[in-house]
Every structure is written in structure tokens, then in C-alpha cells.
Fold each of these.
Amino acid sequence: MPDGALPVLDVKDLKTVFRTRQGEVHAVNSVSFDLRPGELLGVVGESGSGKSVTMMSLIGLLPTPPAEVRNGQVLFGGKDLLKTDDDTLRAIRGARIGFVFQDPMTSLNPVFSVGYQLMEPLRKHMGMNKAAARKRAQELLELVGIPDAGRRLKDYPHQFSGGMRQRVMIAIALACDPQVLIADEPTTALDVTIQAQILELVKDLRQKLGMAIVWITHDLGVIAGIADRVIVMYGGQIVEHAPVRDLFANPQHPYTRALLETIPKVHGARDDRLRVIEGQPPILGAAPEACPFRARCTHRFERCDRENPPRVPVGPDHDAACFWDAGTGGERDV
Amino acid sequence: MFDLRTDMALVKVHDLKMHFPIYTGVLRRHTGDVKAVDGVSFDIIEGETLGLVGESGCGKSTCGRAVLRLYDITSGSIVIDGDDISTMSQDDLRRKRPTMQMVFQDPQASLNPRMTVAGIIGEPLDEHTKLTKSEREARIYELMDQVGLNRDFANRYPHEFSGGQRQRIGIARALALNPKFIVCDEPIAALDVSIQAQVVNLLEDLQERLGLTYLFISHDLSMVRHIADRVAVMYLGKIVELASRDDLYSDPLHPYTKALLSAVPEPDPTLHDTAERVILTGDVPSPSNPPKGCNFCTRCPAVMDICHRVDPEFLTVRPGRQVACHHYSETKNTNVDQPVT
Ligand SMILES: Nc1ncnc2c1ncn2[C@@H]1O[C@H](COP(=O)(O)OP(=O)(O)O)[C@@H](O)[C@H]1O
Ligand SMILES: Nc1ncnc2c1ncn2[C@@H]1O[C@H](COP(=O)(O)OP(=O)(O)O)[C@@H](O)[C@H]1O
Ligand SMILES: [Mg+2]
Ligand SMILES: [Mg+2]
């Protein structure tokens, strides 16, 4: 990636709250990140940490009510997506920002053939006629590795296996040559052997097409394999951000460190006892006025109960939201 | 050595089959069978954990349920703690139930939402024991202590608990009648990474304290490596390889085991650049219409002619190691020490 190139997507201080009958849920709290041209940005965090809500907020996919984007700026192609009208936003979603979700069955329409669902955005956003759209649809299915693509265009989603359906979703997301692909746990529901196929496909597509990708997952193994940079989310916030190798070799936030220590591995040394992170993730009932991880943290200071630590630089392109300094083992002076 | 192990086995499963009939058409004619479990054999030694791994739909859950006779099995024998339960009457089975229990994947779905924690944990006690009210209460508290649930929550309902705590309730219920053998069917699959380790450690502690024997079903190969003493790998209704944990993970023999292990993404970016990966093509065939010959022949990277014709036997190829693959059978003896790629 060329240094200093403008980010394709620049998210600043995003805040999303759900109003529910039980009160407010502060799902996303002051989240800022950028997505750089051609990179794959991994987003990790356990369920409920705010990964999906962050991505849905920035392209207007959350219904209001109950969701309310209270603050933030999302710069894409010179526009603030949070200030863009619905029609323009819909057009951007269909063409310039592609989406792939965990369960393809919820985003594929069961009553239309796969070919129709591929051709529709091509005709609508790219102005193709039927013949051109059909040809392109077939090319797209071939691109994502679906055998016998021409014949399968007329098949319906249920006629595809789970892995093949996810390939179809990727084909649809890529139809109009998007600048950004957002993939929300696209392999979580798949078996490992099928997941490995999809990950290979994505590596291959990146080389061929060069779009920037946001890849959400709770699986640090997946992230290790495909990401360039990683953001770690906890309790609706970004707690650490680093280039992938740096994150694994030199994690700074106690949550990231604990997470890396708890996951068992298939190769290498085997621990007799798993390390655990005691306790539960926080309930996001109010805007956080303290560190969201403090109750489970082994390096908690008195200050952590009073202040929500800001993200501070800890290395090149690497920051962590923590008052504990992993280098000195003492309290950080910020 | 093999005999010694068999003698110590608490659970002995031989050639177990569980086929589900398929009926089609208005006449509901029997047109075929889903061969969910198609001839599996294994022993589990008292106090050990046998891991059962494989991709979804390969028959793990069906196997686990069949071993506890939650189904009327198609054929085979199952001996648990000295009794052959494969042909046992329902009455005898009922008396046998306390020794063998199950922990399910989805604690939410397996706990009655209208019962309190005390009610859920106490239910098996009411069914199988004649405890007085105070004995019953004492036992419930004891169980809650054992699994790390706060006694003060005894009168709360399952929905008031987090996923990890609900799984503790499920485990407490499974322990109520002092079982010897527990089938754990994906007990951590629905839990977050940071909670999984808590539940796995609890299962390990309980095993040590109470001398439990586990069949631990999971699709998570790294967690199975952690918890299991021996591991069986299933593919399309059959066990393709069974070995001690260390042998299986450091030197997998069956091409499917190799592929499965190499597909697990390791949480280490430096490995991904160098690791040689076996990427399987295609999907698992349907268990109602398995391929002729070896079940894995349609996806096997090391497939040979014979594999399309003859179903390989499940043979002991080295001490304590069994595998069903022509690359390791007598007829292909020369290949035994050659790596299968
Ligand atoms: N429609 C909704 N109403 C209320 N709360 C919601 C809604 N959707 C998500 N949330 C809450 O927002 C938080 C973040 O959720 P999400 O972004 O889906 O997490 P992740 O994708 O990291 O698993 C969670 O606490 C979740 O319960
Ligand atoms: N009650 C049933 N009736 C018919 N088919 C079943 C039934 N239970 C499971 N199956 C089928 O048996 C196969 C194995 O299923 P299962 O044991 O649940 O696999 P796993 O637990 O490994 O994912 C699958 O093809 C499944 O659809
Ligand atoms: Mg999500
Ligand atoms: Mg199952």
C-alpha cells in the first residue's frame, strides 16, 4: 500500500445506541478507524462486542428506531455517509460497498434464481442489458469457483451447499466491482475444510481485484491468516489496533494478551491447563465512564474504575486503549 | 496391551449403525436410509476422554445419542459398565440411565425456561431417587457448588444467566445422579472464546474429582487436542482414524485427518506464509447416498483405483492406532511408511 494514500473509508468517533424497552444499549462507543486501499482489515472480538453494529451503522443498515447513530463521521469517496440521503446510500451499498454476511440464507432471496440475483445489481447499477448482465453473472460465478457456472445460474439458493452459497454471496457482493467489501463472519457457520476454501478464494480475489476488505470474525486463527491490520473490539470499543504480525507478536492490551493465551492450538506445544479470562463481558447499559475490561483485567489500576482509557500509540501504527504499560509493567503516564 | 485396554474399558461400542429411514411419495414408501452412523467401533477406558471430531453432518451427534440408546439403534452392540444396553428393554434402560448422561450444545434449548435452576437440577433426583426434601436441597446446593454456580441463584430462571452459566446448569443436572459416563455434545460450541476455556476447565476438574469418563464431541480440533486423551475422526458415518491425542495431532495418518488438521487456521501469522496446506475440494457427499468404495474417495487428495471399488477396513496399523485407508492396509503394505500427500 502506498504510504500516505488516502483511506477508502475513514470512520471517526462513531457512536450507536439502541433504545429498547429495558433501556439504552450503548453498542458502539467512539469507534474510529480507517480502511486503506487494497488492504484487508480484520475486526476481532467476542459476540456482543459491537463488530456488526459498527459496520451496519456506517452504511445505514440499521433501522431507526431502535438504532440511533448518535455521533460520528464516515468518509467515503469525499462524502460523509452519515449525512447522505437514503437513495444515494442505497446505490452505494448496491454497487460501491459490497456485503457478505454470516448466513447467506438471510441475505439471498429464496424465491429468485441465483442468476437473477446476480444480474439485478448489474442491470440496476451498471446499466447492463440482459445479455451483458448474464455474461457477467456467469463470469462472476466462475470467478468465485462455482463449477458449471453457466448452468447453475438458473438454480435457486437452496440448491447450493453452505460453502457454495457463501461463494454466491461473495459473487453478488463483487458484482459491481466495489471499492470496499465488508464481510461479517462469512465463514463462522462453515466447516473448517470449507472455510479453508473460502479463505483461499478471498486471497486469490484480492490479488485479482485489489479492493479493500473489512473482515469481521471472532476467530484469531482466521485473522492471522488473511489480515494486514487488525482492530480488536471489546465492550463496544476498539481496545487495540496493530499490523497483524505485531498484534500477535507483541500484543499490548490485557484483553488481547489474555485472548491469545486462552486459545488452544492444533500445532506446537500443548498446555495442560487452559488459561481463562474470568468473568463475563460487560453489559452496555450506559456510555462507559471506566474501562470496559476492568472487571476481568489482571492489571487493573484505581484509575481504570474512574476513566475510560483513550487509545494511545504504543508502536508504529499500533495503539492500545489501556493505562497499563506492557513494556514497563507499570501505569502509563497519559 | 490391546486386551488390557479393552478390559479397562467402561464403554465398548462395536459396529454401531444408526440408519434413519427415508420415506417418499404419497404412499410414504421406504426408499432409502440416511446412514448417519454406519458401523463404528471404539472403546473408552474408565476415566479417559475420547474426542470425537469431524465436520457437521458426519454423524457425531447421532453417534453420541445412539451410544446412550436415545435412539433404537439399527444394529451393533454397546456395553456400558458391564451391561449390553443395545438390546435392553426400556424398563432396564431406565434403571441404567443414572450411570450415563449427556451435556448438550445449546444450553438455552436444553433447559426448560419455565423451571428454576433448582428445579432443573433437581428433576433427575425426583425421577430416580427418593430423597427427602432437605436431602434434595442439600444435593442441589452441592451440585451448584461443584459447577461454580452461586447458591443464591437457585430460584432464578435460565434466561437470567449467561451462556456459560447456563452450560454450568446443564452440567450440574448431568451430574445429579453420580454418572460414570457423560456424552458431551459440542458443549462449548455456542460459547464465546473467553468463556469456552472456563467450561472446559470445569469439565476437566470434574473428571478428575469424580473419576468421570467422557465422550467429547466437537468440531473444534484445537479444543479436542486440549481435552481428549484419544481422538476418533469421523467422516460420513464412519470412524476413519482413531489414535492417542499426541499421535493423531503430530502424525496424522488418514488423508482426511491430514486435511482437517491443515485446514484449522492457526493463530500465528508467521505460520500462514510457510505452512503447506491441503485444501480439499468439493463438499461432503450425502449420507443417504455415500460413494462406492471408500467414503472419502470423492475428495481424497491421495485417492487410488482401489478406493473407488473397495471400502477400506478399520485396521490396527500400529499399536494403539487404527485407520481405515487403503494406503495402510495389507494389500498396500509397501505404502505404509510413505507420506500420503
Ligand atoms: N436490535 C438491537 N436491539 C438492541 N440491542 C442490540 C440490537 N442489535 C445489537 N444489539 C446490541 O449491540 C451490541 C453489539 O452487538 P453486535 O454488533 O451485533 O456484536 P458482534 O457483532 O460483535 O457480536 C450487543 O450488546 C447487542 O446485544
Ligand atoms: N432424526 C433424524 N432423521 C433423519 N436424518 C437425521 C436425523 N438426525 C440426523 N440425521 C442426519 O444424519 C446425519 C448426521 O447428523 P448428525 O449426527 O447430527 O451430525 P453431526 O453431529 O456430526 O453434525 C446428517 O445427514 C443428518 O441430517
Ligand atoms: Mg456480529
Ligand atoms: Mg452435532
Amino acid sequence: MLLIPCPHCGARPENEFRNAGEAHIARPAEADDAAWADYLYMRTNPKGVFIERWRHIHGCGRFFNCVRHTVTDRIIATYKAGDPRPSLDVLRAWSEHAR
Amino acid sequence: MKFSLLSLARNAVSGQTAGPAQWRSPQPRAVYDVVIVGAGGHGLATAYYLAKEHGIRNVAVLDRGWLGGGNTGRNTTIIRSNYLWDESARLYDHAHRMWETLAQELNYNVMFSPRGVMMLAHNVHDEQVVRRHIHANRGNGVENEWLSPEQAKAFCPPLNISSDMRYPILGAALQRRGGTARHDAVAWGYARAASAMGVDILQNCEVQAIDRDATGRAIAVETSRGRIAAGKIGVVAAGHTSVVMAMAGLRMPLESYPLQALVSEPVKPCFPCVVMSNTIHAYLSQSYKGELVIGAGTDAYVSYSQAGGLHISAHTLDAICELFPMFRRMRMLRNWGGIVDVTPDRSPVIGLTPVPGLFVNCGWGTGGFKATPGSGHVFAHTIATGTPHPIAAPFSLERFRTGRLIDEAAAAAVAH
Ligand SMILES: Cc1cc2nc3c(=O)[nH]c(=O)nc-3n(C[C@H](O)[C@H](O)[C@H](O)COP(=O)(O)OP(=O)(O)OC[C@H]3O[C@@H](n4cnc5c(N)ncnc54)[C@H](O)[C@@H]3O)c2cc1C
Ligand SMILES: [Zn+2]
């Protein structure tokens, strides 16, 4: 059971949340079949640092983003939906700590 | 060495010391006709059928760990073929039929035990889904039958069919020729038979990069044991498929999750079949050693941790205690996780990729053990001929672009 820091409510147990998959996947305004397939189905699924969405369904009800290392499951940071994706350099620095 | 009654007797009196190594452990060669990435059951079976049916013996099967140490050696070994869609029924039944003669085929006891797989219905929706499956299966020549609660209890006496359960049992689907097999033996049997035909099995050999030539064709793998060139490369890396395919610049329709299983202390034979409940998420059988073999769920999030949360297995045990009250005081001995590669439609991906020379067989997720022989068989054909085997054709990567999904997710709920 993960302890997940909701940016609105603070740290709460995993079973208050619903996972909502990879974050920062934007719906393309216009897309051919290949781009549409990519948007709908293709996922990064990395072994390492990963940015995902969670929704605090048994709490504030809000979506937010979470940076987690998928080998250790350690949560590196969470931030509000709509906030910009952390830069590559920031991610790299964070991942050093999460190994 | 050929296993027979005579060899068994000879070993019994010689203290089991006569057995030679079951497969060779050669040094990697510089070049192979085909390199298979992943020595799980599917990868080893692929190599076996490449050698046996297509005469391609200059083959290596690479694994980052030991052979069969991935999901093949971690699964609960349920074998059945009562999938909903025509494409799936053909694929899984092809495999199911191969299980029936696999021990003879490999001269290796894979302990296939068609003891019956029963899937429970707990509410009206379940009953409708189960009955729909039964009709669809029969239309495809796949046996599956409806049992009343009393018939279900007669088939599996430990089952609680009382009406005061939180999720009472309204009936069940039974595939009588479904069952289990010995997970390790499948990997070992294929490894032994493939090795005997000249296939090199290279363990502790992690693929770290895929080399491509100027035309984009995949031509070699860089491994922890050096560079290995290949005419063709087949990736059969289960939960790590996204990681390996990313080495060739490809994104896959996959997410990897830990899936857990656990076993109890061993007890005398008391559980005659396999029982699955998708609705309350429990599945159970008893191994020949006497342990209850229990499948739990996946974690809710992408992870490669190969562990899984305790609340996931506790949830399954709650369900099992309700379904089979006689197990309430059983102690669990071990639990573990495997990393399963899940597709959006819960059907596998078998076939060519946008990168020439690179083939993939993945997405078996929570339910590919049952498909091991058939998967290897159709994938070997696909690699050898460069065109998908007819049974594999609908399972192409292309389907995510064309929209022709084979949606066993909606059809089969969670468990496989
Ligand atoms: C707990 C659990 C229960 C399950 N229960 C069932 C069940 O009851 N019935 C059923 O049909 N299925 C079940 N499954 C699913 C089933 O185990 C899998 O679908 C099947 O075993 C996959 O076989 P495979 O050979 O493709 O994968 P694996 O056996 O996982 O083999 C893949 C191999 O690739 C190797 N590899 C990965 N990356 C690299 C690399 N970079 N270089 C070299 N090698 C690499 C790995 O080390 C691994 O050995 C279950 C799975 C789990 C985890
Ligand atoms: Zn919250």
C-alpha cells in the first residue's frame, strides 16, 4: 500500500485513490490513424521514473500528477493537474534519489 | 537422454546421479539466424518450433536471468480455452490441444492435468456473461457447460453455495478439459528439446541495445555477454517488452503491472479442480505437492517491482475464505509477484513490427501460460516465413491502428 501525497489533502493511503495511467498525454487536435492509435493505446511504460495521474476519489476528488520510480515504487513528487511537466534535468536529478 | 520407464528405474537405483545436464550452456556465437529475447516458456517454445518445424537451428534464446525465471515460473498455471471471441478461441484452443500431447512431444513430463476449470457466477450480470461465453464457445467447437449451484458443489465439494453469502453462487461455467500443468517443467522441457536440436540457450545474457543498419533494419543485439548479430530478432520479454522495444525506438500498447500469487502450507488432497471467480477475484487449485495455489490481482499502477501490495493478496484471501470456509485456518507459506504486460484489449500481440527484422510476441498479461505451446508454434511460423501464421494474424500490432481490437477485456473482466 503506497502512501500518496495528494497536493490538496496531504499524505493518504493508496486505497483512497484511483490510478489514472500515464500523465501528460494530450489529445491531438487533428490526427491520422497512426497518431490516433498512439494517443489512445501506445504508452511509455518505463522502467524507471514515470509520471502518472492519480485521482483522490475518496478525498478531494481531484486529479493530480505524480512522479514515481517504477522499480522502487518510491514517489518522488506530486503536483497539481495543469502544472507544467518537470523538465528532463529536474527528472534526472530526482531519479538519482529514488533508486 | 530419452526419459522412459527404464531410465527412471536406472536412476532410482543409482541415487539420481545419472542424469546429465538437460541443456547445453554454450558461449554466445557472433551470429545467429534468429535471436529470441526472453527464455520464458513462449520464447523457448518459439525456438523449439523454429528448429523442429522450420529447420532453423542456428538460433539463440537469451535471458537476462535464468530460463523460466519470469512469469513462466511465477504463474498459477491455469489452462483453459473458453475465450469469447472467435480469434481468441482459435488461438487458445490451438494451444490447449497441444497441451494434451506435449509431454510425449517433448519426452518430458509437463504434468498436464485436465481436472476441470470452473468459473463462478455471482450475480445476474455474471450469469448472462457466462452463458454468453458458453454459447460462443460451443459455436467455436470449444466445450464449456453451465452448472447449477448444486452441480457446481458436486463437482467441487469444498464450495460454499449457501444463499447468505455476500456474493452467492448462482451457477458456474465448467470446461472439463481445462486444468493445470507444471510451470517449470514446460520451460525445462522446451529448453531441453530445443537445445538437443542445436538451439543455444544463453542465460544471464541481458539485451541492452538493439542495433539497426542504415535502412532501419534490426541486425544485432548488444548484451551483457557481448554483441550478437542476428538475421531476425524475436522479442518475447513479457513484462519487459516495452523496455526492450524502446531500444528499437518503438512504443508499445502495453502497461506492466505486478501480479501476485501465493501458496499455502501443503495438505492432503482436498481440492479436485480449478475454481475461478472474476467477480470477487479469487482463483485456486491444489498442486501435487498439496499446496493451495492462489492467484491474486494486479496492483493498480504501472510497476516493475515484482512484489505487489499486501492488500491485494489479503483481498483475495477474504474471497477464498468466503467461498471455501474450510480454508479459513490455512496458513500461507509464500507470496510473490511477476510483471505482466497488459494490452488495452487484454489480447496478445503476435507478429511483425514497423522495424524490419524485428518481431514481437507479447501482451499475454495475466493469462499467457495456457497459450505457451500454441504461442511458440504460431510465432515460429511468423518469424520463419515473415508472414503471420493464420491464427496469429488477427493479433497483429496493426490492430491498434485499424481499430480491430479483440476485446477480451470487456468480455472476460479481470482474471485470465
Ligand atoms: C502471479 C501470476 C499468475 C499467473 N497465472 C496464470 C494462469 O493461471 N494461467 C495463465 O495462462 N497465465 C497466468 N499468468 C500469466 C503467464 O505467467 C504469462 O502470460 C506467461 O508465463 C508469459 O510467458 P513468457 O514466456 O512470455 O514470459 P516470461 O516467462 O516472463 O519470460 C520472459 C523472459 O524475458 C526475459 N527478459 C526480459 N527482459 C530481457 C532482456 N532485456 N534481455 C534478455 N531477457 C529479458 C525475462 O527474464 C523472462 O525470463 C500468470 C502470471 C503471474 C505473474
Ligand atoms: Zn486530495
